Amino acid sequence: QVQLVESGGGLVQAGGSLRLSCVASGRTFNMYAVGWFRQAPGKQREFVAAIHRTGRLTYYADSVKGRFTSSRDNAKNTVYLQMDSLKPEDTAAYYCAAGSVYGTMRDEYEFWGQGTQVTVSS
Hints:
Layout: E1 4-7, E2 10-13, E3 18-24, E4 33-39, E5 46-51, E6 58-60, E7 68-73, E8 78-83, E9 92-99, E10 111-112, E11 116-121
């Protein structure tokens, strides 16, 4: 069992940056890939980024490629999502999720955090 807690969300102006953190409980965290997803009001939860359990592979949605960067520190059981050049359309609740599969689909992830809100003003 893995429990995930996100933090780092907030209100930022367009063009600004935020760094989200996802802290996991459990000693087996380094066995899991971590995905980042987001959900805006009235929309489905969508894939944002994924990082392999080793941290050596990352994959991003086209909408955030070149602006967002995911990294992880397995010694600290923490995964980060650095978000730069933020746009109003990035406004959403952001969730991290852990799973055995390094993928882009929600169903591939078994454990989810509670989410952190990111609001980007124009």
